Amino acid sequence: MELLSPRRLKIANWVVLAILVAVGYLVSGREFALGVLVGGLLVVVNFHLLHRFLKGTLEKAQVDPESKGRTQAFFAAKQLLRFTGLVAVVFLLVRHGWVNVIGLVVGLSTVALTLTLLGLNEAMKIKNKEANPSHGTSHPLS
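User: That's the sequence. What structure does it adopt?
Assistant: C-alpha cells below.
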C-alpha cells in the first residue's frame, strides 16, 4: 500500500486542491476559486496537523507506556483545540462574506475527495490483480 503513505497522501491532497481551484476558476470564476482555495488550505493544513499530532502521540506512547492515559488526554485536547480553531475560522469567513460559501465547502471536501479517489484506485488495483492470474502467486487457485 505504498500509494497511501502519508507523504503521497499529502501530495495527492495538494494535487486535488490545485485541480479543484483550476476547475472552479474556469467554471465559476475568481471568487468561487478563492473559496475553494481557502477551504482547501484549511482542510489540508488541518489534515497535516492531525497526522503530526497523531504521530507524536504514538511515538510518546511507545517511549513511555506508563504515561499512555496522559498522552491520550493531551492528544484529545489538541484535537479539540484544532477542531475549534477550524470552526472559528470557517465561521468568520462565512459571517463576514470573505469567501464564496459553496466554494469554501468544495475546498473543505478536498481531503475527503482525495481519500475517496485513492481508495477507489486501490480497489481497482486489487480487482485487476484478482482478474489477471499472472499477477500475484504463480500457482492457480483451483
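The chain has one domain: 2-126.
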